[in-house]
Amino acid sequence: MIHMKCKQKRKTNLFLFLLMMNVVFLSAQNQIKISGTVSDAANEPLIGVNVSEKGTVNGTATDVNGQYTLSVSPGATIVYSYIGYISQERPAVAGTMNNVTLAGNMQTLDEVVVVGYGVQKKSSVTGAISQVKAEDMLNRTITRPEQALQGKTAGVQIVQGSAAPGSSPDVRIRGLSSNYSSSPLFVVDGRIATNGIGGIDPNDIESMEVLKDAASSAIYGIAAGNGVVLITTKKGTTGKTSISYDFQTSAQTIARIPQVMNAEQYIDYMTEAQYLSMDAIMQNYDFRTNTDWAKEAFEPSMMMRHNLAFQGGNPAGAYYLSLSYLDNDGYVKGDADSYRRYTATINGSY
Length: 350
Fold this sequence. Notes:
Elements: H1 2-30, E1 32-39, E2 50-53, E3 59-61, E4 67-72, E5 77-81, E6 88-91, E7 100-101, E8 112-115, E9 118-121, E10 129-133, H2 134-137, E11 157-159, E12 170-172, E13 185-188, E14 191-192, E15 205-211, H3 215-220, E16 228-233, E17 242-252, H4 263-272, H5 278-284, H6 293-297, E18 301-314, E19 317-329, E20 338-349
């Protein structure tokens, strides 16, 4: 009885194996083969584009000529994806060339980091690059782009040497050096900013990358010996037209004012130190005046900033237009301690 049961079990296993092989064979017979070329808007072939059957792990990649060949199920949907380009989905059609043109995606700054020596994944350069995005600058009372780096980038020091409105803070990426200047090199949209970046409104900045590694010197020369700050300004978005307005106001006060002597204490000090005689004080003081010079010299600082931006575009081109006004009154009373800035930004592509 045991011997017969073993024979019956072997026959059952053999039957299941042949059934599975038949299903695999039939599935392979039903598949169709598709092929084609993937290129960009300039009709240049794209290398390494991921071509896959939607909902499965079946896929391949394009070769050096942008060509691919893939066997898929009839009626399948093919997904074409590539970093920096908009993914597309196409139905699989046998017997024809399935050529695809991928459009560039201008909103992929979160996936890659644009550096002076090309485009790299952020995960591979985080040790040498610190990034500040546009959302990191929101709801912050900053008036200059350098202030956006404070507290957001590791290893970068922002030294504010003056409290005067509009004063430029010192940026230190590698500390102090023996060079003539310890300031980094600022590059705005690929061009070196020789006159500083104080005229850029923080609302017009898309992202800021700080290059801290030694490789930046190989790109920009000795001027990058103290590091590089790459600034990418906002661009228009294809197919999206929008108008935005941003208003910001803030009040600032001096946190701690040193306590000074009043009139009576000042008289005691000057007479005991024999700097002034009591006769001289009697001749020049009315014994009523008691001025607090800190209150006479300083007042709360008010800052007001307006920014109006227009952006839009179509497949042929995109535009970004921004107008901003900044009025920052300083701590010292009077009109001399104030800073006003008018900024207009135009970015266009065709």
